[in-house]
């Protein structure tokens, strides 16, 4: 079996009045980059990359540079292909666009490799530790009129209570766009709305310096926050270490990090309690399992970050299936030693409408697909609808 054809798809869905904010920017649209790899036997694999910026650079990287190197290759050798592509590009592509492109390719190749033998990716990677995974809701983003805080707190309370009623055990909340005082007020409203049983997670999207993050960590501690995600900018490793040492909440990060080399520094120098590689960013399944091996030797939990389309969610589910308990216990507890999956609750047709079967929450959990490869099928009509022409 040989690779015959590689196609790029840039997808966009304007959000209109559903626009929302993190601490860093407005999100006026959902966008993603998908790659379709076709073999001479008719098998097709899908991968995703380019999560955080415009998808065009990733498409160009694959179309003009990497795809020509893959035509005629055996797609069932994703690890070998990953290493060869990395060695080719390491002088100029250790982070960023080239790794995002390699992530998309790697996911698609594992998809094909699984289909070729009739096995899901989790089986190809050595087996799964669970048939479903607990989901945490990512919500309570900032609306367009975020500065009207006193008026907006009632709506925030209603939104948060809805996640608890929907069966989520955990809720991740965005902070960092407002003052520490105002964001603490938002978090306090949310805690009252969901009650004491729901695990609260917070994500600053690197809005703070170390001093502000430490202060915020101490303010949040009485609210029983389970982790503090991206407290400082990803380049500031010394700041990460300081926040981890001086604030009482476990520190999470890594969605903006790449490959085993980047995570060797993030984990090995004591920056995080929880590592969050994104499969569509860090290098795909091949890189994720290298990162997982390194993290486990340092006692660091791995909870993959998830953003993007249904392909990214499917890949994350396949990967999370293979993460062992860290540490092992006879009674796994989600987040404490059992991995969880991010399930963003903002409007996302690229996730909810792209695939033949939508991911469904049942008793707070999402089932891991059993079908060959990624275990999902792209809906061609939806693909055409979302295509940015």
Characteristics of this structure?
magnesium; nine-stranded mixed beta sheet; Enolase-like_N; hydro-lyase activity; three-stranded antiparallel beta sheet; about 400 residues; Enolase-like, domain 1; 14 strands; magnesium ion binding; alpha/beta; TIM Barrel
Kindly describe this structure.
The chain has 389 residues and is of the alpha/beta class. The protein has two domains: 3-119, Enolase-like, N-terminal domain (Enolase-like, domain 1, 2-Layer Sandwich); 124-367, TIM Barrel (Alpha-Beta Barrel). 40% of the residues lie in helices and 18% in strands. It has 14 helices and 14 strands. The chain has helices spanning 56-70, 78-89, 97-117, 121-124, 149-165, 180-194, 210-220, 237-246, 259-268, 279-282, 284-297, 310-321, 349-352, 380-386; strands spanning 3-14, 20-21, 26-27, 29-39, 44-49, 132-139, 170-174, 199-203, 225-229, 251-253, 274-275, 301-302, 341-344, 365-367. The strands form three sheets. Strands 6, 7, 8, 9, 10, 11, 12, 13 and 14 form a nine-stranded mixed β-sheet that branches. Strands 1-4-5 form a three-stranded antiparallel β-sheet, with helices on both faces. The chain has a two-stranded antiparallel sheet with strand order 2-3. A hairpin with a 4-residue loop joins β2 (20-21) and β3 (26-27). α1 crosses α3, α7 (210-220) runs parallel beside α8 and α9 runs parallel beside α11. The longest helix has 21 residues, at 97-117. The radius of gyration is 20 Å and the shape is globular. The mean pLDDT is 95.
């Amino acid at each position: 079996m040989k690779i015959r054809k590689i196609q790029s798809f840039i997808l966009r869905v304007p959000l209109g009045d559903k626009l929302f904010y993190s601490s860093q920017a407005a999100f006026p649209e959902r966008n993603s980059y998908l790659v379709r790899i076709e073999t001479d036997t008719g098998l097709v694999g899908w991968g995703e990359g380019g999560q955080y910026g415009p998808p065009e650079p990733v498409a160009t990287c694959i179309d003009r540079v990497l795809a020509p190197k893959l035509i005629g290759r055996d797609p069932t050798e994703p690890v070998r292909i990953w290493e060869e592509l990395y060695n080719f590009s390491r002088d100029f592509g250790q982070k960023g666009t080239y790794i995002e492109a390699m992530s998309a390719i790697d996911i698609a190749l594992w998809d094909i490799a699984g289909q070729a033998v009739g096995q899901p990716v989790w089986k190809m990677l050595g087996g799964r530790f669970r048939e479903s995974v607990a989901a945490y809701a990512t919500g309570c983003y900032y609306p367009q009129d975020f500065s009207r805080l006193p008026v907006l707190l009632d709506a925030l309370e209603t939104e948060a209570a809805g996640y608890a009623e929907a069966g989520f055990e955990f809720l991740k909340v965005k902070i960092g766009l407002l003052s520490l005082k105002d964001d603490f007020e938002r978090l306090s409203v949310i805690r009252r709305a969901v009650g004491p049983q729901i695990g609260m997670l917070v994500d600053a999207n690197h809005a703070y310096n170390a001093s502000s993050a430490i202060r915020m960590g101490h303010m949040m501690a009485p609210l029983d926050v389970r982790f503090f995600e991206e407290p400082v900018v990803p380049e500031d490793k010394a700041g990460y270490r300081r926040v981890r040492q001086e604030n009482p909440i476990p520190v999470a990060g890594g969605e903006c990090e790449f490959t085993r080399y980047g995570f060797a520094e993030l984990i090995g120098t004591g920056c995080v309690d929880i590592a969050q590689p994104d499969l569509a960013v860090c290098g795909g399944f091949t890189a994720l399992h290298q990162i997982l091996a390194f993290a486990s030797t340092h006692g660091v939990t791995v909870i993959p970050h998830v953003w993007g389309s249904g392909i990214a969610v499917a890949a994350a589910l396949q990967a999370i299936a293979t993460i062992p308990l860290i540490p092992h216990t006879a009674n796994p507890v989600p987040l404490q030693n059992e991995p969880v999956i991010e399930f963003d609750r903002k409007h996302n047709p690229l996730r909810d409408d792209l695939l033949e079967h939508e991911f469904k929450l049942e008793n707070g959990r999402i089932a891991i697909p059993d079908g060959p490869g990624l275990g999902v099928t792209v809906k061609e009509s939806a693909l055409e609808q979302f295509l940015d022409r």
